[in-house]
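To illustrate the input format used throughout this study, we show a single complete record. The first block contains the structure-token representation of the backbone; no residue identities are included at this stage. The design step must infer an amino acid for every position from geometry alone.
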């Protein structure tokens, strides 16, 4: 074993343990520390026995065991614990040493921490790590951002442990300055919320409108995973629907229908509102989880409020094919909206994001990994200045081809009282995006009527604002015009 470790890690929970085992398996020596020091001894004598690990019982021991420039990665709970460990580390580090936050931190915290750590003469990386327990052990997707000068020192380690795509390219590349890494991870998680919700809506239609059994749905998802929808989430949905409880019945039907969330989807929606980006599908996915959590209220409502009873008389095979098209179309919209958000954030925070590179990082290791992402990378490789994914010829053709089936699914679901908020909001975005004229002219007239907020005219140059005294009783004074 080397006398000094290549990297140190704080936090031996599930993700931390698996990530350091991954690092060690790639030839790196890793120093490990945990606030509850018994975990260190348990790990060194357990899963880490006989391997290239150095156990540390204090921050001082951890730092002293590292090669220079020292690299200390934290995989601890987001929020105050990250700041606390940064304060504990700083006195023991030297200029050029690197603090890495690999947790699910909110990107504004990473912006703040980068500035703070750099003010102490040190370097900071905030990296998204996606793929869960299995990804951490076998190869996650990693999205690092922060101090650009830190990247060369950690690149070899990060890219060695990251997942690889078919040609061997690692699902890890430098994302951008300060909070860019955690922002991209946040958008990844938002897209994950959207993908999961549209899959759940397809399941709902199959189960309640088509009256399909779990085994029948299992076969559909198995087929879909060999076609356009080939992805990790379709794959695990296939497996879940085929899994039987001890009594031989589908386990999925015994699980309480209240969804949990850790906040990253909400963060994505709030960021979209702050930046003025229509992230409708992901927003509806967050709200769908919130509605599911109101279980007792829904049970109460179900006893007193009635609606249509699902009854399907059409061709079952056709609606299943339509569902595939609806999922594919909505998935394109979700990524178009997510990329739109990243583009606006890059302008706002002055990040230089590589959009094709981000698609590559998501091609393997992470929860939203799918064959679909290769097409996104091609789109941005072909046109790095692509303003919206829907304007790429490939995606324009694909989304147009899905719309007939997609519309039939939404119509059938709504007619039969089955909620499909994400599928319908995505379709409405598609129709709004392709509309040369929307009814916001009336909205502007309303705003000017009640608040003198002014409006622009189609027969005058952009940037000229007008106010009308709609009632004859108002004055000519207009409110200040501003953009959200």
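Output of the design step:
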């Amino acid at each position: 074993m080397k006398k000094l470790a290549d990297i140190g890690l704080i936090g031996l929970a599930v993700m931390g343990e698996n990530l350091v085992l991954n690092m060690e398996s790639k030839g790196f020596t890793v120093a490990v520390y945990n606030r509850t020091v018994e975990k260190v001894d348990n790990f060194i004598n357990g899963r880490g026995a006989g391997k290239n690990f150095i156990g540390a019982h204090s921050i001082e021991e951890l730092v002293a065991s590292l090669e220079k420039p020292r690299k200390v990665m934290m995989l601890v709970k987001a929020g105050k614990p990250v700041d606390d460990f940064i304060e504990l580390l700083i006195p023991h580090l030297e200029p050029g040493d690197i603090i890495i936050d690999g947790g699910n931190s909110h990107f504004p915290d990473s912006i703040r921490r980068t500035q703070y750590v750099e003010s102490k003469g040190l370097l900071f990386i905030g990296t998204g790590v996606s793929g869960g327990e299995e990804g951490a052990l076998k190869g996650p997707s990693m999205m690092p951002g922060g101090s650009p000068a830190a990247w060369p020192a950690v690149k070899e380690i990060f890219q060695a442990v990251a997942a690889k795509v078919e040609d061997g390219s690692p699902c890890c590349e430098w994302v951008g300055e300060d909070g860019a890494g955690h922002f991209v991870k946040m958008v990844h998680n938002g897209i994950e919320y959207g993908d999961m919700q549209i899959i759940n809506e397809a399941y709902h239609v199959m189960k309640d409108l088509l009256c399909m059994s779990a085994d029948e749905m299992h076969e559909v998802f198995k087929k879909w995973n060999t076609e356009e929808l080939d992805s990790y989430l379709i794959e695990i949905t296939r497996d879940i629907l085929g899994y039987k409880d001890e009594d031989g019945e589908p386990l999925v039907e015994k699980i309480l229908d209240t969804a949990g969330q850790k906040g990253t989807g909400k963060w994505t929606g709030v960021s979209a509102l702050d930046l003025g980006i229509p992230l409708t599908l992901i927003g509806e996915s967050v709200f769908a989880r919130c509605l599911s959590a109101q279980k007792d209220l829904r049970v109460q409502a179900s006893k007193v409020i009635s609606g249509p009873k699902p009854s399907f008389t059409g061709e079952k095979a056709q609606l299943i094919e339509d569902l595939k098209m609806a999922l594919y179309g909505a998935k394109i919209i979700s990524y178009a909206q997510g990329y739109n958000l990243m583009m606006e954030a890059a302008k706002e925070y002055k990040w230089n994001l590589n959009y094709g590179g981000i698609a590559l990082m998501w091609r393997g290791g992470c929860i939203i990994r799918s064959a679909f992402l290769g097409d996104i990378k091609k789109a941005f490789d072909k046109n790095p200045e692509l303003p919206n994914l829907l304007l790429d010829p490939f995606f324009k053709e694909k989304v147009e081809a899905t719309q007939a089936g997609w519309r039939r699914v939404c119509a059938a679901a709504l007619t039969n009282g089955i909620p499909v908020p994400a599928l319908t909001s995505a379709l409405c975005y598609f129709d709004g995006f392709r509309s040369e004229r929307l009814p916001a002219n009336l909205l502007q007239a309303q705003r000017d009527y009640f608040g003198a907020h002014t409006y622009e005219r189609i027969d005058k140059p952009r940037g000229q604002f007008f106010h009308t005294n709609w009632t004859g009783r108002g004055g000519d004074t207009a409110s200040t015009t501003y953009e959200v």
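Structural context for interpreting the output: Residues 190 and 314 are 34 Å apart (CA to CA). The chain has 19 helices and eight strands.
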